[in-house]
Task: structure prediction
Amino acid sequence: MTLPARPTTAPTRPAVDPLRWPDIARVPHVPLRAAVAERLLRRVARERGLRVELPGGRPLVPAPPGSPVLRLRRPEAFLHRIGATGLIGFGESYQAGDWDSPDLVALLTVLATAPETLVPTAAQWLRRLYVQQPPDAELSTAANAGRNIRHHYDLSNELFALFLDPTMTYSSAVFPTGPAGRPLASWGGLAGAQHRKIDQLLDLARVGPGSRVLEIGTGWGELAVRAAARGAEVVSLTLSEQQLALARRRIAAAGLADRAEVRLCDYRSAEGSYDAVLSVEMIEAVGRPFWPEYFATVDRVLAPGGRAALQAITMPHDRMLASSRTYTWILKYIFPGGLIPSVQAIAETTARHTRLRLTEHQGYGPHYAETLRLWRERFTARAGEVAALGFDPVFRRMWELYLAYSEAGFRTGYLDVQQILLTGEGRQ
Result:
């Protein structure tokens, strides 16, 4: 494929607002890096068995029948973006409409398998040309954390309601399983599977009548409702103003306002003493520099004999270390300031900085893959309603990629989700 002097633009490109999406509107011009990106693309296509289609349907390299398809709409723009910013450019090129796929999850699943081998060992030095560190302005300090959370969770309660089930639960469900242990997932069973997940976590923390419960990360209030319905006294903390308002309304509608209180409060400012501390998929937003403070807070507010139960997305420890100072597309556009931990990192951090010890953990990543599939299919099916809320095509493509990328991560095992029990076994 011969690259022209300047990237070309095709008429199928979605309209891009340069003020809202400056890095999507601008196509970088890096001819030498683009040439390297093309060589890498050819290698990945051959070794991973991908069908990379040029405009008109011609394959870049021969591919086996039935291969996942990467359909290039604007090859030159795609290669220049990859050459300039690596995987960030890969995501931005999808937002811009430079490429597409008839089965996005299948394509991303192939790419998410052993991602450390996508670039050959001898060429790993090239990463320094495009890998960036997360900006200090996005570190989840006490001053920045609220802005990071609002970036995602205050987009619109109506947006999340379009693709979440009626429980408004934005974390992995736990489905019934078939004979082979495969999750039996369906849209009609999603609400029940979310309740199953919440009940497992409440049971892990031994939440019952009279329990004093602190929840770090309210979501839209379903866990608080379910804990209060058991007779617990619940304080739930959030930094999302939109989640705060809706969670309070949902708690009141359930007749549980006397047992469950939602506060706009950073976890670092938590006060009181609790029999159980619960936190569902919130640690991913904390950021590695602040894990010691997060777990020290849990330790500080947990009463003697108390139990802390977390649900956390995790990744293998070596991959976590390799990515801990890398600015990714997900950090730039979806979850600024975060990092997915490993189980080992959680165990080491609690042992080093607190009296807590990790005493149990159970993973169920395939259930998250199915949860994400249901969300993605519903989000895609309701694209017109998403647009009616004011979200433009670039945003919609961004979320399609985010949901498919996440699903692929769980399907390959690159990502997992764990329910984790911390107890005060280290207390003297």
About this structure: The first strand starts at residue 51 and ends at 53. The chain is about 40% helix and 15% strand. The domain at 138-423 is CATH 3.40.50.150 (Rossmann fold).
